[in-house]
């Protein structure tokens, strides 16, 4: 692990295995090229994130990209998340175009030019698959969080990622079951990547409650910034018997909420700013109690 500009950069064990295999098989130059492409790809994310003031703790490099851990997880606007996500594949666009141009001008051999632009195309397109933690998965999550509540976006983002990564595993195994002579055996690389993504998303799905808690923990700071700048408040009307957890799960990512608590008769019992509800929950942790109890 090395530290650059306050960011810890590390190589994921999966990438280490790829490196070892490349050294053993004599593809060291190709490995170095792949590492450079992945590094520049991830650097695009870092530069875009820093331009929005995000605080990045660590970047882990994978054979097909990387994963950045940020302090503001879940609190940044979905527009910013989308821009940061697409910034990585855009690096592959210019690198691939440059490699193709160098081959056209004769500065690189046709074989090497083809290898570099194809590697960029493969990494860029693969990262656009709608599977977390790939860039396409982050774009999917940004879109889901604009359409649905934040909790729903977490759940459905993980479910879609599990479904697609599972399909990737199955697809990698299909050739082994084709009639003799029609298949080429198991696609080992695709199988390994598919399993990695499936396990990653299965773990993520199980930890959604903790991810959502982190979102709520950072929500107060985001709400304060919104109020300071002036923001339209979106009301959430709930019965006084609604649990605190149920109300919190109605929060949307890019919105500020006022909680309107209704009597059975339809009269308004109280109106709470969202940060009051969040602070009460974080203080006592009783998510299953009714919002009515906040006034008792």
What report would you give on this structure?
This protein is of the alpha/beta class and 296 residues long. It has three domains: 1-128, no CATH class; 134-206; 218-295, CBS-domain (Roll), CATH 3.10.580.10. The chain is 60% helix and 14% strand. The chain starts with a strand and ends in a 12-residue tail after the last helix.
* Structural shape: elongated
Q: Structural class of the secondary elements?
A: alpha/beta
Strand tally: 7
Secondary structure: helix percent: 55-70%
- State the end-to-end CA separation: 52 Å
Strand content: 5-15%
* Radius of gyration over all CA atoms, rounded: 23 Å
- Report the uncertain regions: none
Instruction: Spell the H/E element sequence.
Output: EEHHEEHHHHHHEHEEH
Name a few traits of the molecule.
about 300 residues, alpha/beta, CBS-domain, 3 domains, four-stranded mixed beta sheet, three-stranded mixed beta sheet, 7 strands, about 60% helix, Peptidase_M50, membrane, EC 3.4.24.-, hydrolase activity, transmembrane
């Amino acid at each position: 692990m090395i530290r650059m500009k306050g960011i810890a950069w590390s190589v994921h064990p999966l990438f280490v295995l790829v490196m070892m295999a490349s050294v053993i098989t004599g593809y060291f130059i190709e490995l170095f090229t792949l590492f450079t492409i992945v590094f520049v790809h991830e650097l695009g994310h870092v530069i875009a994130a820093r331009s929005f003031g995000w605080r990045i703790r660590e970047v882990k490099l994978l054979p097909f990209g990387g994963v950045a851990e940020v302090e503001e997880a879940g609190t940044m606007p979905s527009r910013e998340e989308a821009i940061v996500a697409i910034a990585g594949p855009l690096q592959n666009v210019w690198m691939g175009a440059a490699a193709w141009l160098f081959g056209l001008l004769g500065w690189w051999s046709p074989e090497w030019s083809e290898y570099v632009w194809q590697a960029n195309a493969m990494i860029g397109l693969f990262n656009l698959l709608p599977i977390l933690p790939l860039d396409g998965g982050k774009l999917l999550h940004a879109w889901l969080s604009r359409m649905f509540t934040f909790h729903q976006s977490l759940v459905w983002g993980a479910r879609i990622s599990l479904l697609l990564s599972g399909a990737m595993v199955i697809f990698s195994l299909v050739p082994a079951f084709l009639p003799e002579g029609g298949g080429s055996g198991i696609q080992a690389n695709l199988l390994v990547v598919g399993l990695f993504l499936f396990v990653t998303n299965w773990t993520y799905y199980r930890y959604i409650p903790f991810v959502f808690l982190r979102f709520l923990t950072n929500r107060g700071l985001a709400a304060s910034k919104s109020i300071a700048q002036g923001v339209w408040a979106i009301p959430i009307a709930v019965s006084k018997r609604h649990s605190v957890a149920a109300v919190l799960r109605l929060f949307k990512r890019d919105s500020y909420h006022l909680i309107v608590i209704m009597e059975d008769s339809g009269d308004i019992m109280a109106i709470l700013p969202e940060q009051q509800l969040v602070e009460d929950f974080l203080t006592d942790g009783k998510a299953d109690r009714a919002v009515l109890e906040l006034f008792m």
